[in-house]
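Bit of a strange request maybe. I'm writing a small parser for structure token strings and I need a real example to test against, not something I typed by hand. Could someone generate the tokens for this chain?
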Amino acid sequence: MTRFAPLGLRTRLIAAFLLVAAICAVSTAALTYQQARNAILKQSQDTAVSTLRDLVDSQYSQLPMGQAELQRLVGELGKRGQPHPWIVYGEYGKLRATSNPGGATTSPSISEQLRSQVTAHPHGAFQRTQDRNGNLSLVVGMPAVFKHHEVYETTGAVFYAVLPLDSEQTTVEALVTAARTGAVPGLAIALIPALLAARSVLRPVRDMRKAAQRLGRGRLDTRIEVRGSDELAGLARTFNETARALEQSVSELREAEARARRFAADVSHELRTPLAGMLAVTEVLDEGAEELDADTAKALRLISAETEKLAVLVEDLMEISRFDARAAELNLDEVDLAETVTKTLERRHWTDGRVSTDLPPDVRARLDPRRFDVVLANLVGNALKHGGAPVRVGVRTETRPEGERLLVEVADSGPGIAPEVLPHIFDRFFKADAARTRSTGSGLGLAITLENVRLHGGTLHAANGPGGGALFILDMPLEARV
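Reply from user aminoacidic:
Good idea to test on real output. This should exercise your parser:
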């Protein structure tokens, strides 16, 4: 089924304006035509009725009349017809006569209804008729009467005048043609105020759309000029008030976020020095832990492990603070991908069969080796810790219109990621299992990984593999740009 695109507001406004104009024009033309037609026909019939009545009253006839007398009267009446020449038919008893030489003595347009009306009204009656060709005629019936003792008595003679209304019909048709001809330029003229009206309505809507776009791009100081006091002006005032409140709220949030970032950075920096001393002391104590009793050695190892956790957390906080402050930088170098991935696995002692690789040879990339090492180590470590061995690391390249891309896939053999966890997998301090709040992870590993990938101009996507287990796909340019 074909679906048409919805019309724009401008088109709908102009169409509605023209529709109203067309309805008004058609209604006015119809009423004007009806009134003019009735006026034209009424004038003709009034003239014809009055003329025939006067002529019949002015004729002298001797009763009872014969055929010759009836023919004489019909001829006289036919000669004096107004406002147009007419054909007169006379009836007197069984006698019939007509003013049309050689024509029938009775017209088919004289109906029985008109005959009965003429008989009932001594002052005559009329009727408009129309033949098969659509030609209008006026038939006027007038009895010949005389006044006796203030009472009109009929003589028995009745005269019918058939008046063609050709000129009146031509005039009416001319009115219709003029109305039809004038409708097209009238609609064309109506198009001008329609455009002006649509422009006046759409200008504030267009301004509001542009303002909303600027607001969506972060220009919170955007305001709309308020014109007038109509509904659109009220909408513009509401938009300005909303933008002003949003700007104030965002400003307060930014200030609070900046304070939180400074606090985290300052605390991390201040903790770094005493932590370095604590780590040095715990290392010395660890060397002599075998000489201590079991409880003391256990407590010493617990302190050492917790100190290492705190050190990792402080380092992660400092790293994420650098990203927030946009102080993180790339130190690009051209590296061999297979060699770089292998070194990352060897440093963490993950070459014991728990991690399998698919590394094509002679693939070189321009990236930051240290940050790429952090990205790969976090992904593989997360897969081993929360997924399950074996973990598969695959590297491949792909050619796209925007250039060569590097794709790194890390998949584990665990149960996968729960659907409710997927949207938050890269959130800071997010842990899928609330029972793991005391685990060795800081909750910042994947967030730092994502920031490092973005710094390279890439993306990181988390999903569940088709065969089960979690799947992380790193997509970044083969040659990163600073």
